[in-house]
Amino acid sequence: MPHGASIAEPGGRPQALWETSPLLARVPGLVHGFTTRAAGDLSAGPPPRGLPGADGFALRLLRQVHGCRVASPSAPEPVPEADGWAGRPVPGVLLGILTADCVPVLLCHPPSRTLGLAHAGWRGIARGVVTRVLKAMGVPAEEVWAAVGPAIGPCCYRVGPEVVRALGPDGAAPWPGMPGRYREDLGRRVRAQLERAGVPAPRIDRVGGCTACHPERYFSHRARGETGRLLAFAGWAPEG
């Protein structure tokens, strides 16, 4: 599907190319979003068409490895190996992470214009990628605004005991009728980590739905074996 394509939602309405956080939308100059299936596979492409001033943006991606390394926007490598960004990108540069079921997290400290992005699968969550990104931002956690994007939900995410051991038993629930299998809510795990790190609950927004439940809206590797990727992005509008 080409970038910027439009597909219909149930009822015939055109599907938005990306979803935004009402909370982060209040930050002057911040451009952000979580793409939907309508934007196409953003694994190696340009920013979604239709962004305000999109012609003035460059997109930077990571080589994600389900780890906890955090890269700076000033990193000299074109595509750093990391699962998080933290720092102050120059205006006109979008920082991006790619997901298909994992949790995309956007963090913003408006006073200093510092941004953080995290690709949080269960391995990354267990290794503390979200809190590492927050720490690398170098700002007071109580002043950070956060948006947790579309990801596989507890309705569909069935895991084995190795995941529960890695994440801890709090929050895992037995999967009905399947001994040794458990229901996990990665989005809730991310939110809990942010709150424990000092981000106030009212400053944490949840955006979008379950990627596995809504194949018409999102790509899902776990539910459908798809290779397409959704893009979570954040940056500052070009000055002038």
Structural description of this entry:
With about 240 residues, the protein is an alpha+beta fold. The chain has a single domain, classed as CNF1/YfiH-like putative cysteine hydrolases. The chain contains 5 helices and 14 strands. The protein has helices spanning about 120-125, 130-135, 160-165, 185-195, 220-225, and strands spanning about 20, 30-35, 60, 70, 85, 95-100, 105-110, 115-120, 145-150, 160, 175, 180-185, 205, 230-235. Strands 4-5-8-7-9-13 form a 6-stranded mixed sheet. A 5-stranded mixed sheet has the order 1-2-14-6-3, with no helix packed on it. Strands 10-12-11 form a 3-stranded antiparallel sheet. A hairpin with a 7-residue loop joins strand 11 (about 175) and strand 12 (about 180-185). It is globular, with a radius of gyration of 17 Å. It starts with 17 loop residues before the first strand and ends with a strand. Mean pLDDT is about 90; it is low at about 1-10.
